[in-house]
Amino acid sequence: MSVGSATEANGSLQRAGQEPGSSWGTAPPPLGGRAYFTCFSGIVWREVLRYLHQRERFLSALVRPLVWLFIFAAGFRQTLGVSIIPPYQTYVLYEVFITPGLIGMIQLFNAMQSSLSMVYDRETGAMRTLLVSPFPRSFLLLSKLVGGVAVSLLQVYAFLLVAYFWEIEPPLYGYLTVLPALILSGLMLGSMALFMSSVIRQLENFAGVMNFVIFPMFFASSALYPLWRVKESSVLLYQICQFNPFTHAVELVRFALYGQVDWTSLAVVVAFTTVFLGGAIYAYNPSKGLIARRGGPGGS
Amino acid sequence: MNMVSEPNVEAEAAPALVVNNVSHRFGETLALDDVSLQVPRGAFVVLLGLNGAGKSTLFALITRLYDNVTGEIRILGHDVRRRASAALQRLGVVFQGRTLDLDLSLKQNLLYHCSLHGIRGREARARTKQALEFVGLADRANEKVRNLSGGQARRVEIARSLLHRPTLLLLDEPTVGLDIDSRESVLEIVRSLVAAEGLGVLWATHLFDEVQPTDHLVILHKGRILFTGAVPEFLDKTGTKTVSDAFRAITGTTDMEFAA
After folding, report:
1. Are A173 and A259 in contact (CB under 8 A)?
2. Which of A238, A274, A278, A280 is the most buried (most CB within 10 A)?
3. What is the ipTM of this complex?
């Protein structure tokens, strides 16, 4: 670009100041409610757009649970009988039983991936562009979190659509009643991942995350087998499963899919969300947070 | 956006940026030691220092990634700690790393930034268009950032930093990795803004040839400010003819350190 064109083009920037108050050098307006909404929807929209542009991520998010459903569940069908337990009113196929678990898996993976992208963002500076926005930092982090949940909802409903043709047929109203449960479980897993992204630096390595976070959480839960079965083989494992927040996310979704509320799980999920979110906001606080103490994203 | 037209209440005298007696420590390391500097409006201030001099820490504090514990930082009179929102509304930043979403278009990237400042709708689209015209990339608005060269991406980042019409613009090593032509065009764009819009610019670099005789200079070395003032003054003080010689003289650095 030539020197001349820069100076010439500069005129158009000045002309941009034709609206009152929007010209250069005047004080920017205070940030009102509509401005907050603009910021919030902008952040959520970016998360969704980014997701839709990454086809591999879209596919892998769909293929992963489907592999479990088509292959793993089919293989286990004969091995593992599931008795009648709430919310199911009849004997159900193993596929039907693990569907809420696979939904949880989708949300867990999505949360971890967005938390990883945040570690990556921290290095490239995209996180810093977010954090220099004039809105309160807790509001920015919450918006980012909701953006991740929105992405996970897309993934879950795409999965449920395919699963429908594999005879996973919850009642039609279940698709609606599961929505608030999905939002809650998404928030819990997302805030957990957000917190982890600010505390644990070794998250860069996805294999590490798989081994130390995703697998233990997924297997030590009610995602793949009913807890009474676990209890039969190991009381200790049963207790671990019960303390695992992921179990409660899965149970919340399982009941909601049939229009019911599992109050214990609801309480546990809400409590964990509050704790994780509080931790994440603390960790990103510019004066108290862990970032300040160890020298900032990406280190000093 | 229909903004209420209000008189410019900000004190005309307030400089774009004031940093007063700021020190910062990471554990044992003193990254910044009693740093003070000013960026007047309409001034191009070059923050010159080698890698590791503390430039990035200073930027992290000004952008409030974390808070300064000692001293004060004011953007147009607004304390960055106490009135963070007002201060950040007046601040534009071009970070050292690449911060655009590669898979989104130029336009989408800029609109996202508008929303981060609460600017929406027609106003956001108009500003995006003008900003892209300004850096000469309006015809590529719908292309993915991935298709741009390094220099072009840099220009988009400058366009982005201007969308909310800041009074202070920070640039952290903005020309690193660019070829000569791109470097010149980026410098030219920013300098023209200083002249036309009265922007205060703090330009951090370790490249001496980016300094012009009319610029203000701030020399940061090992966390301490060794000199602030005009370029001729700097040369007089050190009795040298070029900025790089003067820098060597005042810091006592050897050529080995430069090579590093």
Report:
1. yes
2. A280
3. 0.87
